Amino acid sequence: MSLVSTEWLERNISKVKIIDSSWHMPNILRNGYEEYKREHIKNAIFFDIDKFSNKKSDLPHMLPDKKDWEEIVSNLGISNEDRIIVYDNSDVFSACRCWYTFIFFGHKPNLISVLDGGFQKWKKENRKFTSEKTNIKKNIYVANKLDKLVKNKDEIEDNILKKKFKVVDARSKNRFLGLEKELRPGLRSGSIKNSHSLPFNEIINKDDKTFLEKKIIKEKFAKLGIIEENNVVFSCGSGITATVLSLAYSLINDKYLPAIYDGSWAEYGMINR
Q: N or C: which end of the chain has fewer CB within 10 A?
């Protein structure tokens, strides 16, 4: 159950740990943490995607190492057996990134879900929210890193010839085709050879930010020649929106565990690399 509805969360709110992972694109003048302090779902814990990333990497918000992750999650008061619901106040992508990160570090997939429609839908339905500070009691979390769920640049380049897995790019069609300039400096335009394009916003309803029906999602992947395959890796600009597609694909393939190219175009598109 990768997704839960606002109705489900309201009924089960006392039985779960709630994470607000709101994060906005660099060109959007919004601050997820400041928004969280003003309003959030009761008992929600803030998850800072930038702060909780690998500080040793020169690439944006890369996965942290195992030891750091254990400390991060323990300090959030979360245990391995907690049922977690993640939401955001953006376009679902930062909630999906948080969801993916927990699964990568071994949290059971049936114990973590994304709130379909996020905080925007929650508010539109006049459900309760607060500005009260959430009390956190430190816990002990033990990670079990699943390395098969992340690809590096060497594996991506090796795959161009060997074709062990399919790569799907979540960026806009124009960025994929090289018709639009990249926002980050030092990046060329274009895409990974032999990769497929499926912009992440094409599987999200524009009106309420919920995911499209499974039937429609399945049709979109089928157009790419992807039907019930497990060897699918998602990429994007910097490893964030790729996780939206990985969650969407998990909705139509129960056997699939989300796999992404963490460096994505921020690494692969570097002019001087």
A: C
For position 48, which CATH number holds? Answer: 3.40.250.10
Distance, in Å, from the CA atom of 94 to the CA atom of 240, rounded to the nearest integer, reads 7
Among residues 102, 57, 27, 48, the alpha carbon closest in space to that of 266 is found at 57
Looking only at the bridges linking them, the beta strands covering 232-235 and 166-169 are parallel
The verdict on 74 and 186 lying in the same domain is no
Q: Which of 249, 265, 255, 235 minimizes the C-alpha distance to 203? A: 249
For residues 115 and 181, membership in a common domain is answered with no
CA contacts within 13 A on the Cβ side of 235 = 28
CA distance 1 to 22: 21
Tokens 């060997």 correspond to what residue?
162
Take residue 133 and report the two structure tokens written for it.
């500070």
Is 211 part of any domain? yes
Report the domain count for the chain: 2
Shared domain check, 119 and 157: no
Residue-wise pLDDT tens digits, 108-134: 999 999 999 999 999 999 999 999 999
Does residue 129 lie in a domain region? no
- Residue pLDDT, tens place only, 158-202: 999 999 999 999 999 999 999 998 988 899 999 999 999 999 999
Do residues 234 and 170 lie in contact, with contact meaning Cβ atoms separated by under 8 Å? yes
Residue 233, CB-side half-sphere exposure with 13 Å CA sphere: 27
Structure tokens given for 26: 């660099």
Measured distance CA(58)–CA(240) in Å, rounded = 16
In a domain? residue 80: yes
Residue keyed to tokens 């709110």: 13
In this prediction, residue 273 has a pLDDT band, given cuts at 50, 70 and 90, of: low
Are 253 and 155 in the same domain?
yes
